Amino acid sequence: MESTALQEFTDQDHEQFSEQGYLRLGKVFDQTEALQQRIDDIMLGKIPCETMQFQLDGATGEYEKLAPNTPGHKGATLAYRRITGLEQDPLFLTYMQHPLFRQITRRYIGEDVSIFRAMFMNKPAHQGTKLPWHQDVGKGWGVDTTPTITVWTALDDATPENACMQLVPGSHKLGILNEGHYTSEEDQAKHILPEDIIDLEAKAGEAILLNNLTLHRSDVNPTDLRRRALSVAYMDGKTRSLKNGTPYPMIFGQRALSPEAA
């Protein structure tokens, strides 16, 4: 299902997002193919990206057995699981500074907005990593506040067959279940009923707004088709790392990054 692209974020959109914990924004950017090509070029080492962090996909599908996510390209391959630091690329930065995202972040965060990460997520054909049920919370991420919203964008069609995201609408109203990020089996049994789970299908280029407390998961991809996506977690510009107190890349407001300088 592909929704009509929103031109502005209305009170009705706010009400739906507040109730469901997610909202389809539609295909808000007209350069999906350029984003697809750019991420492939980054994976293949055709674009300098020494300070981005790369993580190769694992062979077992088990999250616990993944190689670390560390700075520097790990070789020309389309089998990376995760790449972070995409705000350093002018095309991806232009996308994450889209006027609609500015409207949304101004409503929920304010004028000065940073990002925890601009992250490429990949489930290569017949690969991918199983992500357990979780919420995207602050302490689990090592930040001093819980980021409120994420814009998730499909770079390929996401379907139940190729392990699209699953979520529980309205589960953000439960609040933080575990500040360590993952959801306990006890809470899963209590709050994640099979009849409440939906498959978050999306067409390539479609953006979806997520509340960071909405319970979600994904599985391995058993198909011949890869499933690529971009996830950008927006947060208050005052947010700092719990480890060393450093700030995060500014996307909107004072000292915001510029595509011309990226």
CATH superfamily: q2cbj1_9rhob like domain
What ranges have pLDDT less than 50 throughout 5 or more consecutive residues? none
Just give the CATH class: Mainly Beta
- The separation of the N and C termini measures 34 Å
Q: H/E element string?
A: HEHEEEHHEEHEEHEEEEE
Count of the domains: 1
Which overall shape is indicated by the principal axes computed on the Cα atoms? globular
CATH topology: Jelly Rolls
Q: How many helices?
A: 6
User: What's the total count of β strands?
Assistant: 13
Structural class: alpha+beta
CATH architect. name: Sandwich
Could you explain the architecture of this structure?
This protein is 19% helix and 24% strand. It has 262 residues and is α+β, with helices and mostly antiparallel strands. It has a single domain (14-252), classed as Sandwich (Jelly Rolls), CATH 2.60.120. Strands 1, 2, 3, 4, 5, 7, 10, 12 and 13 form a 9-stranded antiparallel β-sheet that branches. The longest helix is centred in the first third of the chain and has 12 residues, at 32-43. 40% of the residues are buried.
